[in-house]
Design goal:
Blueprint lengths: L7 H12 L4 H8 L3 H8 L6 H11 L4 H12 L7 H24 L5 H17 L5 H19 L5 H24 L3 H18 L2 H17 L3 H12 L4 H17 L3 H14 L15 H14 L3 H14 L5 H16 L6 H12 L8 H13 L7 H16 L6
Length: 409
């Protein structure tokens, strides 16, 4: 190992180099790790294996950082603590424990500090949901959900009870989204039902609107398109501005699958008018960007059998979406694939290439919605079923379906 690879400082410089001009705050939101952990890593503290794995996945560096971290961890080449600093840390830990015990004596409940930490955790989950591998999310969210459920079993003061109830609803909602992305729609409904109970107790508009979006998606992917559209339409009346564009998009795609041109156009117009209100991530549905709008416009064009519009909007969506939001970008590619098969001059080779781009994503990022959409493309490729590339895509879809969480043999 050369000197350039033999220190945590060198690893920190490499992380800083990969980050480039992106701020630590933006990177934090995209990988789901707090900014201070990124800062410490860049300043020479040995990062965790989980952080390096998340950075490798985000930058697609082929495990470079995780391998580097493992070598440093095994060799003990991390930064050496000064004995004075160590004594200060021991003193600080003792004072921290004393402070915690004092808080316990003052409060009737010791849950407030833990609630604050869990609220921060949910904010981090919201920021990194679309860029974090699904198995990592499942483990993190499940652990926090069990913690909140344990709190709710205890006697809490009114304020803490409301905070814990909101957290329980948010975490149950995220578990529902994870079940949905794995294709487990019954489980997704069960989590949505539980989250609804929490949301009804506290009347949180963001949670109620996000649940409506999840239910609309479940209806859409179980081919109940009218229900998908009407669920989103009803929720739009009372939803916060953050959710307005997404719910309009969900209404539009339901109408499009039923061939309702005018209703689709009206909902898409509302979607485009509301895009700017949904910029920063909040606990609930993911942010809705200009790339999201282009992708849903392409979805609607496919539903209405307009190949030229589907191709134009899909190309725009691929250009505008973050390369690390694999689900949204995957749907953009699949709309492009479908667009290549619509019209008088189908292009099966281009459809296969776009479909492969949709499903060839890092491990843990594939969703059931993408697999379902690429399966439809394969069916549309039926007239070219004997083509080796089409057969290869069919086999890839089968492997992709087995790779979804909970579907492995």
């Amino acid at each position: 190992m050369g000197d350039d690879e033999g220190s945590t400082a060198a690893l920190g410089r490499r992380i800083r180099q990969l980050r480039g001009r992106m701020s630590q705050d933006v990177l934090s939101r995209r990988i789901g790790f707090h900014r201070t952990r990124i800062s410490k890593a860049e300043n020479g503290e040995l990062p965790s294996a989980e952080l390096c794995a998340a950075l490798d996945s985000y930058w697609q560096t082929g495990g470079e950082l995780a391998t580097w971290q493992a070598r440093l961890d095994a060799s003990g080449n991390g930064p050496r603590e000064d004995p004075t600093d160590r004594r200060k840390l021991v003193q600080l830990a003792a004072l921290s424990a004393l402070a915690f015990e004092t808080t316990n004596r003052i409060d009737t409940s010791a849950t407030a500090p833990t609630l604050g930490e869990l609220e921060d955790d949910v904010t981090d989950i919201a920021a990194g949901f679309d860029t974090t591998p699904r198995p990592v999310l499942i483990a993190e969210i499940a652990r926090r959900w069990h913690q909140v459920e344990a709190m709710l079993d205890n006697r809490l003061n009114v304020t803490d009870s409301q905070r814990a109830t909101l957290l329980g609803g948010q975490l149950a909602y995220y578990l529902g989204r994870l079940a949905f992305t794995g294709g487990h729609y019954r489980d997704a409904r069960r989590f949505a039902d539980l989250s609804d109970r929490y949301a009804a107790q506290i009347g949180d508009g963001m949670l109620l609107g996000s649940l409506a979006a999840l239910r609309s998606s479940i209806s859409y992917y179980t081919q109940r398109w009218d229900e998908a559209a009407s669920t989103a339409a009803r929720a739009r009346r009372d939803a916060p501005p953050y959710l307005a564009a997404r719910l309009a998009a969900y209404e539009a795609r339901g109408h499009a699958r039923l061939g309702r041109d005018h209703e689709t156009a009206d909902a898409l117009a509302d979607m485009n008018a509301a895009v700017e209100a949904s910029a920063a991530p909040q606990p609930g549905s993911s942010p809705f960007t200009a790339g999201s709008a282009a992708m849903f416009a392409a979805v609607c064009a496919v539903g209405l059998r307009d190949g030229a519009e589907a191709r134009a909007q899909a190309r725009r969506a691929v250009e505008l979406t973050d390369p690390h939001t694999h689900e949204e970008r995957g749907h953009a590619y699949l709309c492009l694939a479908s667009g290549h098969l619509l019209g008088d001059r189908p292009d099966p080779a281009a459809a296969v290439a776009a479909s492969r781009a949709a499903v060839c994503v890092p491990e843990g990022h594939l969703s059931a919605t993408v697999v379902a959409a690429v399966s439809r493309v394969v069916r549309d490729l039926g007239p070219w079923a004997s083509d080796p590339d089409v057969r290869g895509l069919d086999a890839l879809v089968h492997r992709s379906r087995l790779s979804l969480p909970g579907n492995a043999p």
